[in-house]
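Input record (one chain):
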Amino acid sequence: MKVMRWLIALVLLAGGVGLYLYPSYHHATQGAEIDELALAMQALESSEERVPSLNPKQRAKLEGAIRLDIPSIGLSGPVLETTTAENLDVALTKVAPTMRPGEGNLAIAGHRSFVPGRLFNRLPDVEPGDVVTITDPADGTIYRYVVEEEWVVKPEDVSVLEPTETPSLTLITCTPIETAENRHIVRATLVDASAKEAR
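The corresponding structure, as predicted from the sequence alone:
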């Protein structure tokens, strides 16, 4: 009987330690995959000779991807073509895969993440007047948007995805970070598009 108690105590202790350490493990592996995708995106955007260094999984994940930069919050990362739970765990994603930068209302979703600076963690810090750029590695075009407004909606309010009169960018994340019961929206308007500068 005493041995059984010790065994149960050890199992409970191991389970508790596992539950305690899992978030750290998840953040570390998620961070590694986010960094790996960012480097793969850079390789895709740079010289053609480096593109073959992408592994098949990276190449498939980055098919049709674009890059989003928000200098005011230090965010730069890939926006994957499709929104899936797996993709949202490691990157920002397009809500509608067929939408292209510079056309209609391009909506991009992303998790807040509890890690500062990761994914859309700092999206609520974006303010009207901030610049947001989208780089399309397919043709090298850089689209520059300026933030017009931000607001909070309920998750069932999908009006933020409706077409806009001018080319717009709608950024969507959960808020508040602890409960994710609402959606924080940032809307930016296209101000110009230009070919990527030669390196």
